Amino acid sequence: MMSTPVQCTKSRQKGIQTVLSPRNRWIRSITFAAMLFTAVANAQVQPLMVPENEDTLSKADVEFQTDLKELNFNVSPQSGHSGGCSSGQNWDINQGQCVSALKLRTETTTRSCSCSCSSGQTGSCTSRQTGTYSVMGWRIPPSGVELVSHNTTTSWGSCQRVTSTCKDAPTSPPPSSGGGGSGSSLPASGTNFVVSAWICGKGDSGYSSPAGIPDQFRNQLISGYRAFSAYDRCPEAAGYSYWLGQWKAAADKLIAQGVTQHMAYSRSWHAGNEGNIKARMDAGAAENGEHLSSSITQLDKTCQEEADKKYGKGRVKAVFDKAKKGATCKVS
Q: Could you list the residue range(s) of the whole structural domain that residue 241 is in?
């Protein structure tokens, strides 16, 4: 096919320039916008054929909404949120299609759970559990109102105690000695008793442990400890056994070298020699503040604990006896 050239005269050029001029383009844009607004403002809901697959067509509603500033274009099933959807599905506006139930939000709930006081306590308590679950459903057209399908299984956290009146049960005091026989009489103020865990001499439980150490050196260790204490308190069983063990180990090394037992214990006790037991023991006591006047607080506490075991928890008040010292407490 042959094309025939067209001669562009000056008058034709002027006409093209007029049509394509910026002013005329602006006028045409305004005219088109006005026509579009008129069509939108007068639009009615019209059915729109939306293909679901190659073999089936479903009808949908097309809705225009405007407030003269914005234009909203909504597409939704013509027969409501479930129209045209498969069984168990609904139209979700966020997905823009038929879907099974989606997670809408997470909710929190609580419930009570079992609670009991610890062994040896009286009273009662309450506990609660906090759980979370998901709310499933759809946000249906036209405005996205939630349509709830179901809630998922709640995932529960651990049981937490919220209230409690649990407290240690009072210990029954031992029967009183003598002819009274009531079993409930309490010692008078000033009554003395000793702390069984403090070792002052051969008659105390734990005095002979560890074995193999002459009593002379056991008593020397007790005296050395009391001399450092601010209140002339005897050593507790654990510290007594530990330092005797350290002393014996140092002395045994010297004895293995041919040193006599007496000389071995004497040399390893004093500062500057093998073992250096006295200085090391004093340093350990100093770390605990046992040379300070404030150590009376701990001594009083130990005496009160001993009184609770002896007479019943909280039945009497007891303090360390500063006059009798050693391992002696008194009822205050």
A: 192-331
